[in-house]
Amino acid sequence: MKVLNAKVDWNLRWANSPSLYLLVDKIPDDLEYEQRGDLYFAEKEGFVNFFYYNRPDQGYGGRKFHLKMKDGSEKVLIGPWSSNSSSMNAGGFPLCMECTITDNLKVWEKGYTFYAGAVLVEVAEKALEKFVPEAMILRPKEFKSYETASAEQNICIGNSSFFTIVLKSGFYKPGIDKRWKEEV
Length: 184
What we know:
With 184 residues, the chain is of the alpha+beta class. It has one domain. The chain is 17% helix and 34% strand. The chain is built from four helices and eleven strands; from the N terminus they run E-E-E-E-E-E-E-H-E-H-E-H-E-H-E. The strands form two sheets. A nine-stranded mixed sheet has the order 1-2-8-9-5-4-3-6-7. The longest helix is centred in the C-terminal third of the chain and has 11 residues, at 121-131. The protein is globular and about 45 Å long. The model is unreliable at 148-160 and 176-184 (pLDDT under 50).
């Protein structure tokens, strides 16, 4: 997966953290998952996907997911939950963060129908460095993974183990992108 462009929605009108938007050449498929307790994690070419699953449930409306595991086996998850990157980080998987992603240039240009996704933190950092040099990833102080914690503990611990985007200058400013243009 090659990042072709990146931008940040600073969410200036809301109390949300800034959102990273990525245009990539191709969103990888044929992912292979690793399981640690109730957490399932896959990474390919910097793209990340994950689930939380401890029993059949109603996540995704009870949909079945057929996962190819790294050891070559297949697991079927019935109604898993999507989880979040901070839970995966706390679970000891490679550091990742949420982003909004597309491999369609028209979607990028028009600003709609993006996918919610996640990438390795290093992919996000390189994208910002190249396309949004005034921004950087703020890493949590004294970040630790908790590989020995249960999945439920990981979810609780994970809430404080997230990465966010800030301006290097320390101040937010409105972008000039037409979708997020601030009124003067």
